[in-house]
Amino acid sequence: MHNSSQNGLHVAIIMDGNGRWATRRGLPRVAGHRAGVATVRDVIEHAPELGIRRLTLYAFSSDNWNRPAPEVQSIFWLMRAYLRLETDRLRQRGARLQAIGRRDRIPAALLREIEKAEFATADCKLLDVRVAVDYSSRDSITRTVSALKETVSGSVAESPDFFRGVLTKVLTAESGNVDLLIRTGGEKRLSDFLLWESAYAELYFTERMWPDFGAIDLEAAVSEFSERQRRFGGLPNPASQPTASTTEGAR
Ligand code: IPE
Ligand code: IPE
Ligand code: MG
Protein backbone atom coordinates (compact mmCIF):
# COMPACT_ATOMS: atom_id res chain seq x y z
CA MET A 1 0.00 0.00 0.00
CA HIS A 2 1.22 3.44 -0.80
CA ASN A 3 -0.59 5.29 1.93
CA SER A 4 -1.91 4.53 5.31
CA SER A 5 -5.13 6.46 5.09
CA GLN A 6 -8.42 4.68 4.85
CA ASN A 7 -9.68 7.45 2.61
CA GLY A 8 -7.08 7.03 -0.10
CA LEU A 9 -5.16 9.64 -1.98
CA HIS A 10 -6.43 12.65 -3.82
CA VAL A 11 -4.31 13.00 -6.92
CA ALA A 12 -4.77 16.01 -9.20
CA ILE A 13 -3.28 16.06 -12.68
CA ILE A 14 -2.54 18.94 -15.05
CA MET A 15 -2.72 16.99 -18.29
CA ASP A 16 -0.32 19.10 -20.34
CA GLY A 17 1.69 18.55 -23.49
CA ASN A 18 -0.87 17.28 -26.00
CA GLY A 19 -0.12 20.01 -28.52
CA ARG A 20 3.65 19.58 -28.39
CA TRP A 21 3.31 15.81 -28.59
CA ALA A 22 1.40 16.22 -31.87
CA THR A 23 3.52 19.01 -33.31
CA ARG A 24 6.70 16.97 -32.82
CA ARG A 25 5.14 14.26 -34.91
CA GLY A 26 4.10 16.65 -37.64
CA LEU A 27 0.46 16.22 -36.65
CA PRO A 28 -2.20 18.85 -35.97
CA ARG A 29 -2.59 19.76 -32.29
CA VAL A 30 -5.98 18.10 -32.13
CA ALA A 31 -4.29 14.74 -32.77
CA GLY A 32 -2.51 15.26 -29.46
CA HIS A 33 -5.78 15.92 -27.67
CA ARG A 34 -7.21 12.77 -29.21
CA ALA A 35 -4.20 10.72 -28.11
CA GLY A 36 -4.53 12.22 -24.65
CA VAL A 37 -7.96 10.65 -24.22
CA ALA A 38 -6.37 7.19 -24.18
CA THR A 39 -4.15 8.29 -21.30
CA VAL A 40 -7.21 9.45 -19.36
CA ARG A 41 -8.70 5.98 -19.76
CA ASP A 42 -5.48 4.29 -18.67
CA VAL A 43 -5.00 6.49 -15.61
CA ILE A 44 -8.61 6.06 -14.42
CA GLU A 45 -8.32 2.31 -14.83
CA HIS A 46 -5.16 2.00 -12.74
CA ALA A 47 -5.80 4.66 -10.10
CA PRO A 48 -7.69 2.50 -7.56
CA GLU A 49 -4.98 -0.14 -7.35
CA LEU A 50 -2.45 2.59 -6.50
CA GLY A 51 -4.47 3.70 -3.50
CA ILE A 52 -6.03 6.67 -5.26
CA ARG A 53 -9.56 7.43 -4.15
CA ARG A 54 -10.01 10.75 -5.88
CA LEU A 55 -8.64 11.98 -9.16
CA THR A 56 -9.07 15.56 -10.35
CA LEU A 57 -8.13 16.07 -13.99
CA TYR A 58 -7.53 19.49 -15.52
CA ALA A 59 -9.07 19.18 -18.97
CA PHE A 60 -9.84 22.75 -20.02
CA SER A 61 -8.94 25.93 -18.18
CA SER A 62 -10.94 29.12 -18.38
CA ASP A 63 -7.86 30.68 -19.97
CA ASN A 64 -7.92 28.01 -22.69
CA TRP A 65 -10.74 30.04 -24.27
CA ASN A 66 -7.88 32.19 -25.57
CA ARG A 67 -6.98 29.46 -28.06
CA PRO A 68 -8.22 29.46 -31.65
CA ALA A 69 -11.92 28.54 -31.83
CA PRO A 70 -11.40 25.39 -33.93
CA GLU A 71 -9.05 23.92 -31.29
CA VAL A 72 -11.48 24.78 -28.50
CA GLN A 73 -14.36 23.20 -30.39
CA SER A 74 -12.34 20.05 -31.06
CA ILE A 75 -11.51 19.70 -27.39
CA PHE A 76 -15.18 19.96 -26.44
CA TRP A 77 -16.12 17.53 -29.17
CA LEU A 78 -13.58 15.00 -27.90
CA MET A 79 -14.86 15.37 -24.34
CA ARG A 80 -18.38 14.74 -25.51
CA ALA A 81 -17.37 11.68 -27.51
CA TYR A 82 -15.36 10.37 -24.56
CA LEU A 83 -18.32 10.67 -22.21
CA ARG A 84 -20.68 9.07 -24.67
CA LEU A 85 -18.40 6.11 -25.18
CA GLU A 86 -17.04 5.72 -21.67
CA THR A 87 -19.85 6.35 -19.22
CA ASP A 88 -20.84 2.67 -19.06
CA ARG A 89 -17.25 1.66 -18.53
CA LEU A 90 -16.78 4.25 -15.79
CA ARG A 91 -19.84 2.84 -14.08
CA GLN A 92 -18.61 -0.73 -14.38
CA ARG A 93 -15.31 0.29 -12.84
CA GLY A 94 -17.01 2.02 -9.94
CA ALA A 95 -15.87 5.47 -11.03
CA ARG A 96 -18.09 8.39 -10.19
CA LEU A 97 -17.68 11.28 -12.59
CA GLN A 98 -18.28 14.89 -11.71
CA ALA A 99 -17.37 18.07 -13.52
CA ILE A 100 -16.00 21.12 -11.73
CA GLY A 101 -15.81 24.57 -13.28
CA ARG A 102 -18.26 26.86 -15.00
CA ARG A 103 -21.24 25.31 -16.71
CA ASP A 104 -22.69 28.36 -18.35
CA ARG A 105 -20.29 28.80 -21.26
CA ILE A 106 -19.61 25.28 -22.54
CA PRO A 107 -21.64 23.91 -25.47
CA ALA A 108 -25.11 22.71 -24.47
CA ALA A 109 -24.52 19.27 -26.01
CA LEU A 110 -21.42 18.78 -23.86
CA LEU A 111 -23.22 19.94 -20.75
CA ARG A 112 -26.00 17.42 -21.41
CA GLU A 113 -23.45 14.62 -21.77
CA ILE A 114 -21.72 15.68 -18.54
CA GLU A 115 -25.02 15.69 -16.66
CA LYS A 116 -25.92 12.27 -18.05
CA ALA A 117 -22.57 10.84 -16.96
CA GLU A 118 -22.87 12.42 -13.51
CA PHE A 119 -26.31 10.93 -13.09
CA ALA A 120 -25.35 7.49 -14.40
CA THR A 121 -22.30 7.18 -12.13
CA ALA A 122 -23.71 8.94 -9.06
CA ASP A 123 -23.71 5.83 -6.87
CA CYS A 124 -20.23 4.60 -7.83
CA LYS A 125 -17.90 4.39 -4.86
CA LEU A 126 -14.47 3.09 -5.86
CA LEU A 127 -13.03 6.25 -7.38
CA ASP A 128 -14.15 9.87 -7.67
CA VAL A 129 -13.14 11.33 -11.00
CA ARG A 130 -13.50 15.09 -11.19
CA VAL A 131 -12.96 16.67 -14.52
CA ALA A 132 -12.17 20.38 -14.49
CA VAL A 133 -13.79 22.00 -17.51
CA ASP A 134 -13.85 25.78 -18.00
CA TYR A 135 -12.15 25.81 -14.64
CA SER A 136 -10.27 28.64 -12.95
CA SER A 137 -9.27 28.38 -9.33
CA ARG A 138 -9.20 32.15 -8.85
CA ASP A 139 -12.64 32.36 -10.35
CA SER A 140 -13.93 29.62 -8.09
CA ILE A 141 -12.52 31.35 -4.98
CA THR A 142 -13.89 34.71 -6.10
CA ARG A 143 -17.36 33.31 -6.66
CA THR A 144 -17.36 31.60 -3.29
CA VAL A 145 -16.42 34.85 -1.57
CA SER A 146 -18.99 36.90 -3.41
CA ALA A 147 -21.74 34.36 -2.66
CA LEU A 148 -20.72 34.54 1.01
CA LYS A 149 -20.84 38.30 1.07
CA GLU A 150 -24.51 38.19 0.23
CA THR A 151 -25.34 35.97 3.18
CA VAL A 152 -23.26 37.33 6.07
CA SER A 153 -23.47 40.59 7.91
CA GLY A 154 -22.57 42.13 11.26
CA SER A 155 -19.61 41.11 13.40
CA VAL A 156 -19.23 37.65 11.84
CA ALA A 157 -18.40 39.33 8.54
CA GLU A 158 -15.39 40.94 10.24
CA SER A 159 -13.86 37.62 11.32
CA PRO A 160 -11.09 36.14 9.16
CA ASP A 161 -11.53 32.79 10.94
CA PHE A 162 -15.11 32.67 9.88
CA PHE A 163 -14.18 33.24 6.27
CA ARG A 164 -11.36 30.78 6.38
CA GLY A 165 -13.66 28.13 7.82
CA VAL A 166 -16.36 28.68 5.26
CA LEU A 167 -13.95 28.92 2.36
CA THR A 168 -12.29 25.67 3.37
CA LYS A 169 -15.64 24.00 3.64
CA VAL A 170 -17.00 25.25 0.36
CA LEU A 171 -13.85 24.95 -1.73
CA THR A 172 -12.78 21.58 -0.46
CA ALA A 173 -16.35 20.31 -0.79
CA GLU A 174 -15.90 20.92 -4.48
CA SER A 175 -12.73 18.94 -4.86
CA GLY A 176 -11.02 18.27 -1.51
CA ASN A 177 -7.44 18.86 -0.40
CA VAL A 178 -4.94 17.56 -2.91
CA ASP A 179 -2.30 15.09 -1.71
CA LEU A 180 -0.29 14.79 -4.89
CA LEU A 181 -0.35 17.20 -7.81
CA ILE A 182 1.16 15.95 -11.04
CA ARG A 183 1.90 18.07 -14.10
CA THR A 184 3.00 16.44 -17.33
CA GLY A 185 4.57 18.27 -20.27
CA GLY A 186 7.58 19.76 -18.48
CA GLU A 187 6.17 23.12 -17.35
CA LYS A 188 6.51 23.87 -13.66
CA ARG A 189 3.50 25.96 -12.83
CA LEU A 190 -0.06 25.62 -11.58
CA SER A 191 -1.88 27.54 -14.33
CA ASP A 192 -4.76 28.48 -12.00
CA PHE A 193 -5.55 24.90 -10.91
CA LEU A 194 -6.78 24.08 -7.37
CA LEU A 195 -4.80 26.88 -5.70
CA TRP A 196 -6.57 26.65 -2.36
CA GLU A 197 -6.86 22.87 -2.34
CA SER A 198 -3.15 22.36 -3.15
CA ALA A 199 -1.83 24.40 -0.20
CA TYR A 200 0.03 21.32 1.10
CA ALA A 201 0.00 19.15 -2.00
CA GLU A 202 3.20 17.36 -2.93
CA LEU A 203 4.19 18.58 -6.39
CA TYR A 204 5.44 16.23 -9.08
CA PHE A 205 6.56 17.51 -12.47
CA THR A 206 7.43 15.23 -15.34
CA GLU A 207 8.80 15.93 -18.82
CA ARG A 208 6.54 13.22 -20.21
CA MET A 209 3.90 14.64 -22.56
CA TRP A 210 0.36 13.69 -21.55
CA PRO A 211 -0.26 11.26 -24.46
CA ASP A 212 2.92 9.37 -23.43
CA PHE A 213 2.01 9.25 -19.75
CA GLY A 214 0.65 5.95 -18.46
CA ALA A 215 0.02 3.66 -15.53
CA ILE A 216 3.76 3.14 -14.98
CA ASP A 217 4.36 6.88 -14.71
CA LEU A 218 1.44 7.25 -12.35
CA GLU A 219 2.85 4.50 -10.21
CA ALA A 220 6.27 6.22 -10.20
CA ALA A 221 4.64 9.47 -9.05
CA VAL A 222 2.69 7.76 -6.26
CA SER A 223 5.80 5.87 -5.23
CA GLU A 224 7.80 9.11 -5.01
CA PHE A 225 4.96 10.64 -3.04
CA SER A 226 5.13 7.79 -0.56
CA GLU A 227 8.79 8.71 0.12
CA ARG A 228 8.01 12.35 0.83
CA GLN A 229 7.66 13.55 4.36
CA ARG A 230 4.63 15.73 4.87
CA ARG A 231 4.74 18.06 7.80
CA PHE A 232 1.89 20.54 7.35
CA GLY A 233 3.97 23.17 9.10
CA GLY A 234 4.63 20.94 12.09
CA LEU A 235 7.73 19.01 13.04
CA PRO A 236 8.86 15.78 11.46
CA ASN A 237 7.51 12.67 13.07
CA PRO A 238 10.25 10.03 12.79
CA ALA A 239 7.78 7.21 12.33
CA SER A 240 5.51 9.05 9.97
CA GLN A 241 4.54 7.91 6.53
CA PRO A 242 2.87 10.27 4.11
CA THR A 243 -0.85 10.06 4.52
CA ALA A 244 -3.79 11.40 2.63
CA SER A 245 -4.79 14.74 4.02
CA THR A 246 -7.88 14.84 6.15
CA THR A 247 -10.37 17.66 5.92
CA GLU A 248 -8.63 19.75 8.55
CA GLY A 249 -5.09 18.38 8.32
CA ALA A 250 -3.96 20.29 5.29
CA ARG A 251 -5.53 23.67 5.69
C1 IPE B 1 -3.08 20.28 -22.55
O1 IPE B 1 -2.22 20.22 -23.63
C2 IPE B 1 -4.53 20.16 -22.94
C3 IPE B 1 -5.28 21.42 -22.83
C4 IPE B 1 -4.82 22.54 -22.36
C5 IPE B 1 -6.65 21.37 -23.28
P1 IPE B 1 -1.82 21.52 -24.44
O2 IPE B 1 -2.81 21.72 -25.53
O3 IPE B 1 -1.66 22.68 -23.53
O4 IPE B 1 -0.44 21.06 -25.02
P2 IPE B 1 0.87 21.95 -25.16
O5 IPE B 1 1.19 22.49 -23.81
O6 IPE B 1 0.55 23.02 -26.14
O7 IPE B 1 1.89 20.99 -25.65
C1 IPE C 1 -3.12 24.07 -18.28
O1 IPE C 1 -2.35 23.92 -19.40
C2 IPE C 1 -4.54 23.67 -18.56
C3 IPE C 1 -4.76 22.27 -18.87
C4 IPE C 1 -3.87 21.31 -18.90
C5 IPE C 1 -6.13 21.92 -19.14
P1 IPE C 1 -1.99 25.14 -20.35
O2 IPE C 1 -1.17 24.59 -21.44
O3 IPE C 1 -3.24 25.84 -20.74
O4 IPE C 1 -1.17 26.10 -19.38
P2 IPE C 1 -0.07 27.18 -19.69
O5 IPE C 1 -0.66 28.11 -20.71
O6 IPE C 1 1.12 26.47 -20.23
O7 IPE C 1 0.21 27.83 -18.37
MG1 MG D 1 -0.05 23.40 -22.50
In short:
The protein is 42% helix and 16% strand. The protein has helices spanning 18-24, 29-46, 69-92, 108-120, 137-151, 160-175, 215-227, and strands spanning 9-14, 52-61, 95-100, 127-135, 180-183, 202-205. Magnesium ion binds at residues 16, 185.
Number of helices: 7
Main beta sheet: strand number and arrangement? 6 strands, parallel
Record field, number of beta strands: 6
Low-confidence stretches: 1-5, 247-251
**What is the CA-CA span between the terminal residues?**
25 Å
Q: List the helices and strands in order.
A: EHHEHEHEHHEEH
Strand content: 15-25%
Oligomer: single chain
Task: Please characterize this protein's 3D structure.
The chain is an alpha/beta fold. The chain has a single domain (9-137, 175-250), classed as Undecaprenyl pyrophosphate synthetase (3-Layer(aba) Sandwich). Helices cover 42% and strands 16% of the residues. The protein is built from seven helices and six strands, in the order βααβαβαβααββα. It has helices spanning 18-24, 29-46, 69-92, 108-120, 137-151, 160-175, 215-227, and strands at residues 9-14, 52-61, 95-100, 127-135, 180-183, 202-205. It has a six-stranded parallel beta sheet with strand order 3-4-2-1-5-6, with helices on both faces. Helix 2 packs parallel to helix 3, helix 3 (69-92) runs parallel beside helix 4 and helix 5 (137-151) crosses helix 6. The protein starts with 8 loop residues before the first strand and ends in a 24-residue tail after the last helix. Residues 1-5 and 247-251 have low confidence and may be disordered. The structure holds 3-methylbut-3-enyl trihydrogen diphosphate (IPE) (2 copies) and magnesium ion (MG).
